[in-house]
Structure formats: C-alpha cells, structure tokens
Amino acid sequence: MPLLRERGQRQVFCGLAGIVWLHRKIQDAFFLVVGSRTCAHLLQSAAGVMIFAEPRFATAILQDRDLAGMADCNDELDRVVAELLARRPDIGTLFLVGSCPSEVIKLDLDTAAERLSRNQQGRVRILAYSGSGIETTFTQGEDTCLTALVREMPAADAPALLVVGTLPDIVEDQFCRLFDAIGIAPVHFLPPRRASELPPVGAGTRVLAAQPFVGDTVAALAERGATLIEAPYPFGVEGTRAWLGAAAAAFDIPDARVQDVCAAPMARAERGLARYREQLAGKRISFLPDSQLEIPLGRFLARECGMQLVEVAVPYLDRRMLGPELALLPAPERLSEGQDVEAQLDRLRADRPDLTVCGLGLANPLEAEGLTTKWSIELVFSPVHGFDQAPDLAELFARPLNRRARLAF
Amino acid sequence: MQLTVWTYEGPPHMGAMRIAASMRDVHCVLHAPQGDTYADLLFTMIARNAKRPPVTYTSFQARDLGGDTAGLVQRTLRETVERFRPQALLVGEACTAELIQDQPGALAEGMDLGIPVVPLELPAYTRKENWGAAETFFSLVRALLRGRPLPERGQGAPKANLLGPTALGFRCRDDITEVTKLLGSLGIEVNVVAPAGASPADLLRLPEADFNVCLYPEIAHETCAWLERMFKQPWTRIVPIGVGATVDFLREAAALAGVDPAPALAAAQTRLPWYSRSVDSTYLTGKRVFIFGDATHAIAAARVATEELAFDVVGLGTYSREFTRELRAAAEQYGLEPLITDDYLEVEARVLELAPELVLGTQMERHIAKRAGIPCAVISAPVHVQDFPARYAPQMGFEGANVLFDTWVHPLMMGLEEHLITMFREDIEFHDEAAPSHLGPAATRGGAETRATAPADDAPADVSDEELIWDMDAERELRKIPFFVRGKARRNTERYARESGVATITIETLYDAKAHFGR
User: Most buried among A29, A151, B238, B470, by the most CB within 10 A?
Assistant: First the structure.
C-alpha cells in the first residue's frame, strides 16, 4: 500500500491530553504537569467544563526565575510537590508529567521522581513520564504513562494474560467474563483501576494490546520478559473475534472453544450492527490523523459496515503494532502518515467524503463548509471495544449522518 | 514554580490569537510546538465559531530542534501569506518557542512580505492572556496608524468607536449590541467596533471618531490612552454594567459628544429596579456575597450587588494585576481587604474563610463553590461553553441589568423554602443537605457540611482556635442554624468567645455572640 508522508502544521493534541481520561481510570493517582501556563490552559480547556470539587491533576507552572538555573528548578519542584501532598494526603501515586518547556530546558523529571520518592519514604510513589507535544501525539501520552508504570510492576514468571491500554470499566468486565469462559486465567489489565494494585510481569506474561498506541509500553514489557500476542484490535465483531482467538492460541486453547464462547455475543452484535450497516454502507469516509485508532476503525467501518475509505491518515505509523490491522485493511484511496493540515484540507475539499473524522478544532469549520464530521476524540472517551459495543461504535459514525438528515434547517 | 490547579488566564499568545480571531483579514503566525493547536478549540467549540481562527502554527517537534527551526518559521510565514493573503500579519511565539529564541518577528520583518508585519513580544513566563491581547491590539493599531494626520471632525452626528470586545470575551457579542443601542439613544453613531469584526482597513478609520468608548479596559485601555495622545480622542472611563453605571455612562458619553442625556435617560427602561424593590426580594437584603473576576466585571458587580440588590459584599478580588489600583479603590469603598491574586488556591482559601451565601465569580469559582456547597453565578471570564449562550444575554446596559438580576438570584434558595427550612429541619425531602428544590433533583448540597465544619471554618483560622472547645449541646444548637449562615455563626461565636475569654462554648455563648453581632 503506497504511503503518503507529510510534514507541516499538525492539528493534533499533545500527550498531556491523555491525563483527561487517565485521571479517571486510575483513581488513586494524581497528575502534576511540569510546564507552562499553556499546559495548564490546555488541561482546563479540555477538562474544565466539568466542575471539580477535588481535581486530580494540576500544573507546576515554570516562572521566569525557574528558567535561570537548574538547581533552583529542582528545589522549586520539591517545594511544589510537598505543598501538593500536604493538601492532598490521599494521593497514592503521583505522576510528574513532562511538557515541551520542561523537555527543552532539560529538567530531569526521572531523577526528580526518584529523589522525591526517596524523600517520601514509601508513603507516595512518584513517577515521571513525558506528555510533551514535541515528543508525543495525543494518545501517545497514555503510552508514556504506562511505560513509566511497567518499571514498578512486581515480577512473576507464572503464565498470565496482560491486557494493555485503557478500557472503560464495563468493557473490561465484559472481557473478563469472555476470557474466563474461554479458559484463560489469570487476566490482568494495565492500567489498573488503582495504581496501588499493579499487575505482575515476567517470562510467562503474554501481552494483548487493546489499543494500537501502546507500542512503547509493549516494548518495556518485553524487556521484562513478556511476549506480545500479535492481533488486530477488538473493534467490531471481526476484530474482537480475532483478538480473543489470538489470545486463546497463545494459551494453546483450541479455536473451537473460542467459537463456542463467542457464537452468541457475535450473533447479537451482528443483529445490532445490521441497522447501522444500512445507514453506513456505500458512504465515503476520510480520517484525519489524531489517535492511531484510524486504521483499526477504518478496517471495521469498511469490512463490517460497508463504508468506502477515502483517505486514512495516522499521526505516525507503528508497523509492528499495526501489522495485523494493515493486513486486513481494504486499500483506501490514500494512506497518509504525518500531516500538513492545509494541504490535507485541500484534498479533503476535493474528495468531499460523506463523513470526515477529525478533531474539534476542525469539526465545526468543516460542518460550516457543508462537510459532515465525526469528532474523533469521542472515540477515545466512549466504550467502543468488544462485541457488545460494536453496534455502539457504528452508531457513533451513523449519528452525525442521521442528524444531518433530520435537521430541517 | 507555581502550583496551579486552575488558571484564570491562558498564556499571552492566547491573547494574540483572540485579537486575530476577532478581526477580519488579519492572520497570526505562531512559532509553537505540535499540540499548541488545542487553542483553536476554544474558538470552534467554546465560542462555537464556524471558521477556524486565522492562526498558523509552525508545529515543531523534537526532531526539528536539532535542525533549522528558523527555516521552518520562514517557510511557514511564506506559505501562510501566499495562502491566506491577509491585510496584516501578526507574528509571535508560544512559551516553548520563547526558549529556543528564533526571533520569528524579526525574521518576518526581514522577508519583505509586502504587507504590514507586526512582531509581537509576548513574555510567556511573566505575562498572561489579557496582557497579550491588550499588547497585540495596541501594537497593531500603532503599527497601522503611526504618523497619520489628524482627520477633520465635527460634521454630522457625533461618532464613537467601541474598543475592547474580542472573541472569547465574556458576553462581548451582546454587549456590543446593547451599547450601540445606548449610544443610539443619545444620537451618537458607532464609527468602528474593534477588534471584534474589524479589518485593518477599519482600524485606519479609528481617528475619525469624536471619542472612544473603552468597553473592556483589560483589552483596550492602552490603545485608548495612545489614541488620546496621538489623535486627541477622549475616552469613557465608566463601564455600563448595572443600572447605576449605565446611567452614569450615558451622562459621560453625552458630555463627550456634547449632547443632552435627559431625553435618553427619561426614555430608559429596565426591570431590575422594580424587581429588586418588590417584596419578593426583601429576603435578599444583606445576603453575604463574595465577588471575584477580571477587574472590570468584579468592580461593576460589587456596585450592582450593594446599590441595586442590597447584598453585603464580604469579599472582592481580581486576577487582573494590571488593574490593581482600581480594584483596591473599589474594595476600600466597601471597607474590604482586596484580594489581588491569580492563585486559585488563595481564592479558595478566602471563600472558605468568609463562608459567603453567594459567590459571583468565574468558571473557576464554580469549582470552589461546589466544594464548599455555596450557590454561585458567573460574572466574568474565564467561562465555559454554557456562558456563550444562543439567546441575547448582555451584561451591559439596561437589558444587561435584567440579565444580571435573573442570573444572580437564580442559584439562591427561594424565600418560602428558606423560611421553612429554618423552621423545620428534619423534613425528608426539604432538608439541610438538599439543594434549593427549584434547581431540580440532580442538584445536591454535598459540600454544605464542609462549609459548616472543617475545613471551611477550621483551615484558615487563628492558632487560638485550638484552645476553644464546643460543648455537645452548643454544637447541636449550631446545627439548627440554617446552612447558609452557619459558617458565619460558628466564626462569630468563636471570635466572641476569644474576645471575652470563654474557653468552652455553650449554648449561652452562642446566643451571647448572636446578640453581640446581630445576624
């Protein structure tokens, strides 16, 4: 498949945006960004529409005098962390999150985290990762966060399945039931709901990625002896079936067993999908780069909903993580990596697809140009994995088309 | 470093973006890392603009830092001018770019782009959003108008410019309409509204007006002062928020235009004075209110609260450091210690300490009010999407006063319910922990306890508090006082006990204190 590589203005989030869902998933963690007012502004613009009595994230904003000397910066960080921990004694795990300014001035947050952890004498675990825009794009912020957790995971060589990537609680529970019925045990999830309950890792650990953007985490787990189960991602009936099948194969469980367990939920999902397939079949769709979910979702929409792929764009292409997906993906008119947003919008206006998947900075302006859009961030915030969410996932794409058809004005 | 849970203002380049996005035919190029495009969302989602803000970012990444980032800036500038063909170009840098010092403004000036280029100095580690907007507006106006001759004025109807309304400004859209109406009632024409809706060509017409209306001093103060020096244009000092301020504004504008304000004042219609005088509002008398926001809205709100709603203002503050003097003067008028801070935690501590019955603030104070279980209404930016409403909702002028009345009274418990809660405390539906029932089933007063007990009253208290003991009966009696004044009763009783040397607080002490301080 030919690949268009572009560089230019990129209309994407930085990795700090991951905090918006990670702070909900990991309930005993606090995220302290070390950055500028811009970073603080990003976080509150993204999450501040909710009213928080006790927010679980904050920013240590660099001041002019912090930029003068490094030693001073570390003292300042110690002071701010002490202030924060005094205010919030319930914090179990504190993430120091690097940003563009902290990376550019080369403030070593890893060392700072070690020092602060020592000072806390085990009361609070303090870890560091980067969510900077210069290094990470949107969901990559979860990857760097989970990578930091891998070092903290206890060692155990017993066979176990580790599912990596944030899943909504309800989806996690569904997968638990399916794995149990198939006969895979024990099953652990990363990230866990509480940072104090990290799953073990070792030579017996088989890693199944639930999200395509956890490449670094998988590599870090491999260093601890774990092996990756290569599979497509559990979107739609086909993806979920293949994902579960790959896990079963890794545990030497016959596929017939998987088929028995999956038959009923697959039939149910097919029934639910039928209605949306009617609405989506034949419609042309373009993805602008955002989250790395573009290829698996394009695969689902094309193969299971009958949509035609026009341009499928990804912020970066991790061929190791996306190999099984690329093998299934019906060739789109264009596959692109990176972004030059103005050139891409010119192509989009020429293509005029029926539906465009894009970020919120572009969605309303494109709607005003008469293009129907699906804002992409929702795909990271909604339960979309697994059999029982397959119709919901299709509905997310059918809804804007449906709405456009219903509105009289 | 400053520990920041919420920030009242964005970085200064956000202010520059607001100026560009307010105007027509102006484009802004920002040297900024990948990810800083999040700021577009504020325009397309919060203000629901149908167009992308006219801002191009260089979007540099880590791998670019080893190479030629200055070349990236130049390429971006050239492509942007070719594609968008603006009448004027703003060039600035975001906080990360400030650290790598590529001097994009100087680069742009050296490129001979064929249009006016305004390089922006936006010190991201010392200044903030409103400063950035004010500086950008001023720099642009000065770049376009410097050296222009003084135009002839005095023919036809008097004309005024409306200066200060911007994209993402709090209710700017409707304030423009309302103030245009006010000026119209005096027979004054609006010459140019800027930056909102203006093009660089419109800015060139600014000197033709007889005077300037400085609607939002945070944005336009510096520009008004410069226009006065260069083009002899006087400018209004009164911001017409509230009935009293609107009347004063009409008089001030009439004086600057040389017209008689009497007919306009006689024809003015507003419902706030009657609504506030009607007996239904009697229970609002002396409600203790805490006010925080940008200086303009906070000062205006304090006047409305005291003179027009008969509230007691117990706290007044702003995050606008540029207007410290004005806010201090206002606070002094009400006998208050002004709170000048951009530290959310400091504002939170003050609210918990004062335990007001109503908070008038920004989106950030809504977080504080939720934690403390206090009713809250929004009077100032920063705000979220619900405060960019579809309906007509000005803050200024006579209709603005109507809007203020409804908005501020709504979160308070209504009179009858308040009386009955005070009389009967154990009703299963209407009780202390329940929010005002007119706010619906979802609302709860989860934080009421926080406010009545720790940490609301304990956290910022004096050291001597530890020596005070409440006996069980007194504690129980305290709980019979309605939640919205309980925090104040506790503090007054403790203060009375300390002052009169009582170590154990009894029911008697509680009532002694009540008699001493009044309600």
Answer: A29
Q: Is A288 on the interface with B (CB under 8 A)?
A: no
Catalytic residue among B68, B280, B462, B473: B280
Residue B485's domain is classified under what CATH number? 1.10.8.550
Do residues B318 and B400 both lie within one domain?
yes
Residues B76 and B173 in one domain: no
Whole-number mean pLDDT of chain A?
Answer: 95
Q: For position B257, which CATH number holds?
A: 3.40.50.1980
- Looking at the structure, tell me whether residues B350 and B464 fall in a common domain: no
Closest partner CB to B83 (pick from A54, A103, A342): A342
Full-model pTM: 0.92
Token pair, residue B132, equals 């950035």
DSSP state of B44: I
Q: Tokens 């060509």 belong to which residue?
A: B201
Sorted by sequence, the CB contacts under 8 Å of residue B68 that are 6+ apart come out as none
The Cα A163–Cα A169 span in angstroms is: 13
A55 near B CB under 8 A: yes
Please give the Cα distance from B265 to B182 (Å, whole number): 10
**Which pLDDT value is given to residue B445?**
53
Query: How close A34 comes to chain B (CA, Å)?
Result: 9
Tell me the ipTM for this assembly. 0.94
Q: Find, among B163, B237, B168, the residue nearest to B384 by Cα.
A: B168
Strand B2-4 to A57-61 pairing: antiparallel
Residue B441 in domain: no
Domain boundary among B99, B116, B145: B145
Measured in whole angstroms, the distance separating CA B462 from the mean position of its chain's CA atoms is: 32
Percent of chain A surpassing pLDDT 70: 98
Backbone CA torsion sign across A128, A133, A134, A138: positive
Q: Are residues B277 and B406 in the same domain?
A: yes
Total domains present in chain B: 4
> With contact defined as beta carbons under 8 Å apart, do B384 and A51 qualify?
no
A171 touches chain B (CB under 8 A): no
For residue B19, which of B171, B145, B196, B163 has the smallest C-alpha distance?
Answer: B196
Let me know whether B259 and B278 are in one domain.
no
Cβ–Cβ contacts within 10 Å for residue B389, how many? 12
Model confidence at A70, pLDDT cuts 50, 70, 90, reads: low
Residue B358 is assigned to a structural domain of this protein: yes
Q: What is the pLDDT of residue B67?
A: 84
Residues 6+ apart with CB under 8 A from B187: B157, B158, B257, B259
Same domain, B234 and B319: no
Q: Which of A15, A59, A101 sits opposite B96 (nearest CB)?
A: A101
Residues B131 and B206 in one domain: no
B140 neighbors B88 (Cβ within 8 angstroms): yes
Q: Which domain holds residue B281?
A: 272-412
Q: What is the pLDDT of residues A19-31, one digit of tens each?
A: 999 998 999 999 9
pLDDT given for residue B477 in this prediction: 87
Are the beta carbons of B41 and A360 separated by less than 8 Å? yes
For the question of residue B280 being annotated catalytic, the response is yes
Tell me the residue length of chain A: 409
Domain boundary among B204, B237, B265: B265
Residue B439 placed within a domain: no
Structure confidence by residue, pLDDT tens digits, A113-159: 999 999 988 899 999 999 999 999 999 999 999 999 999 999 999 99
pLDDT digits (tens, 9 = 90+) for A257-274: 999 999 999 999 999 999
Give yes or no for residue A201 having a pLDDT over 60.
yes
Residues of chain B with pLDDT under 70: 415-416, 419, 422-423, 425-428, 430-435, 440-466, 519
Percent of chain A topping pLDDT 90: 89
Q: How many of the other CB atoms lie within 10 Å of CB of A327?
A: 9
**Both B290 and B328 in a single domain?**
yes
CA distance B178 to A296: 52
- Average pLDDT of the segment spanning A23-52: 88
